[in-house]
Amino acid sequence: MKLAKPHLDIALFSNRRDEQLAFWQQTVGLPYDHMGKVGGGVQQHRHHMNGSILKMNHARDPLPAIAPSGIIGLVIAREGLAAPVPLADPDGNRVTLVPRGHDSVEGIAILLRVNDRAAHDRFWTEAMQYERMDEGRYRCGDSLIVIAEQGKVEPRGTPWRGPGYRYTTVQVFDCVAEYEGILARGGSPGGAVRVLGETVRYAFVCDPDGNHIEISQRASLTGGRL
User: Fold this and answer.
1) 11-48 pLDDT, tens digit each
2) Is the pLDDT at 88 greater than 90, yes or no?
3) CA terminus-to-terminus distance, the chain
4) DSSP conformational letter for 193
5) Per the CB 3.0–4.6 Å rule, which of 46, 150, 163, 174 could disulfide with 33?
6) Looking at residue 80, which CATH number applies to its domain?
7) Average pLDDT, stretch 189-202?
8) Whole-angstrom Cα distance, residue 47 to residue 161?
9) 221 in any annotated domain
10) Structurally, how many domains does the chain consist of?
């Protein structure tokens, strides 16, 4: 996979805009980038996070009460800390600030609960072509996907956008080629290729538990080419 940015992004959905923005900006201390409209009454508030982006998607209408995703936590490296600082956002999403380099986290780590560790190992190393660091730990750029626990993850149908962490994003130079390559290597489709104005070309694939991964070709990262 040819990366346009060596950092993964992560997105959550919430109906609690003001509380969420206060938490991520003031409690966690993430710099605010900008807000973009992504359709369907959703505003995406983007925050910088060690080169990654935290996307706080505020939904105007009540979000459906669907099963949570398998994304159960976010770890963010931070200079100047002596020990991990566990936190939870206004919707209960777990986030932990850690000293840079703690447990090999240099940027961010995204924590998963999974039904089948072996299926995830095949998916992350073969379909997504992430680097296996050791058992249950996969690297994309300086970001990590970590199998934190094994347990029941409920399947999700449509809609899949509900409260909490819902998807990760990998930035690439050619969305179509990478999307088709992931499917050819055993990934599952999660959403066909689409173009949003002159900003981004994107598609979604799903991991073995139905968690969505956005394959994004963003013009600002690819020299204006879509």
Assistant:
1) 999 999 999 999 999 999 999 999 988 878 999 999 99
2) yes
3) 17
4) E
5) 46
6) 3.10.180
7) 92
8) 20
9) no
10) 1
